[in-house]
Amino acid sequence: MNNPILIIDDEKGIRSVLGDILQDEGYTVYDAGSGADGLSLLRTRLVDLVFLDVWMPGMGGLDVLKAIKADWPDLPVVMISGHSKIDMAVRAIKEGAFDFVEKPLSIDKTLALVQNALRLQELSRENRQLRSSLLQENVMIGECPPMRRVKDMIQQSAPTDSRVIILGENGTGKELVAREIHRLSPRFRKPFVEVNCAAIPDTLIESELFGHEKGSFTSALGQRKGKFELANGGTIFLDEVADMSLNAQAKVLRAVQEMRFERIGGEQTLSVDVRIISATNKDIVAEVAAGRFREDLYYRLNVVPILVPPLRDRLEDLPLLVDHFLGQFCAKNLLGSKKTVPHFSPEAWKVVTEHSWPGNIRELKNYLERLSVMVDGDVIELDVAQAMLGDVSNAGQSSPLEPWQNMSLNEAKDAFEKSFIEEKFRKNQYSVPKTAQDLGLYPSNLHSKLKKFGIEVEK
Ligand SMILES: Nc1ncnc2c1ncn2[C@@H]1O[C@H](COP(=O)(O)OP(=O)(O)OP(=O)(O)O)[C@@H](O)[C@H]1O
Ligand SMILES: [Mg+2]
């Protein structure tokens, strides 16, 4: 039992008496002689409970309480009240205080209150966690040897604080693995904070990760906490980590190494206790070799690598996955209007097993969701199975830009230009003048592009 507790009281006597009582019980105790000191301490330390004096010179207890509730709405605050200030303590309860204790403090009552407050906080976190895991229905299906290995790695790494990097193609379940590690770790009652490194523009990534102070840059209207701070005590999930710019990588490196950082425009160095899990669908070793990913950061993140296999390498799990998803979708979509979950005819099943599933589990899931809506009878026949597959094979990819995702802008431009010209060329029966006109180019210009891209000019 080591929950850190903060005491904010201007009376030194109260701080030391209460501090001693709590320390004797094994709690870590911080104290502050004023509201302002208490608030700044909260910004740099992880605290599970606050004792707060109702009446203090300077910033009064009620104002401090409001400030705490604005920034840490779930942090329980117990008011300390003198006999004549009970009415203020009662008002504080209305403002969100957990309870109050009266001076002189009764040891038993105070300790019972501490236990209740901490327990309630844990329960509400656990509750939230359970609710979200129920909603996401995030059970991990798969019994084939490669998935067994993944599950073993999860079991082994979860109780530790080791950094884990999860590698695998799009839609293989990397995020699910990350959430599972957090759920099974001692940090499960604390936050799991996801950062999609690919989705944040380079100019904003520092503020996103580390936060900023009010006015630190033009669009910084108020103080904002970064993801590292929000994840304190819990886990941060750096998704698509290989998509970060070198500039952002340098910033992350320091935070990862030292678990310390400053908000943009902030003077104070914040320390946090955060477990780091990262993931990427890129060949990160190749990214390092190409100089696009810092080697030092790679070694920091890659303590325990977990490789999630593509679906085509675990087809023996298909029946389990299909049963699971179809059952889930039918139950959800049809609200009991359909009695049985449909099954694939042998010919239709062959289509499923022979498909390469480039979008992996996500593609399979989308496919089955579609089928659960479209199929009326008990049997999924060949034609439907085939038609729906055609429709969703692209939906398995997360973006229409997918084919260019791993290229630089110039490479992507060239690749696009080449396919575009090839396509038009074919459409115009390999006629240079016609194709040039179609593309709005001079024939000479088209000729040089054909040459550049090595496109054969058939006679
Ligand atoms: N083994 C599994 N059992 C059940 N559901 C799974 C499994 N693997 C993945 N899923 C589901 O498939 C979907 C895609 O998984 P997830 O988002 O974790 O993939 P990802 O590897 O992070 O994909 P991306 O690279 O596109 O970000 C999710 O809805 C997830 O719940
Ligand atoms: Mg993902």
3D architecture notes:
With 459 residues, the chain is α/β, with parallel strands linked by helices. The protein has 4 domains: 4-127, Rossmann fold, CATH 3.40.50.2300; 137-309, P-loop containing nucleotide triphosphate hydrolases (Rossmann fold, 3-Layer(aba) Sandwich); 312-392, Orthogonal Bundle (Helicase, Ruva Protein, domain 3), CATH 1.10.8; 407-452, Homeodomain-like (Arc Repressor Mutant, subunit A, Orthogonal Bundle). Helix content is 48%, strand content 14%. It is built from 19 helices and 16 strands. The chain has helices at 12-24, 35-44, 61-71, 86-94, 107-136, 145-157, 174-183, 205-210, 227-230, 246-258, 284-289, 295-301, 318-334, 346-354, 360-374, 382-392, 409-427, 432-439, 443-452, and strands at 4-8, 28-32, 49-53, 77-81, 99-102, 164-167, 192-196, 211-212, 224-225, 235-239, 260-262, 269-271, 275-280, 304-307, 343-344, 379-380. The strands form 5 sheets. Strands 2-1-3-4-5 form a 5-stranded parallel sheet, sandwiched between helices. It has a 5-stranded parallel sheet with strand order 7-10-13-6-14. The protein starts with a strand and ends in a 7-residue tail after the last helix. The model is unreliable at 392-397 (pLDDT under 50). Residues 138, 140-142, 168, 170-176, 281, 361-362, 365, 398 line the site of adenosine-5'-triphosphate.
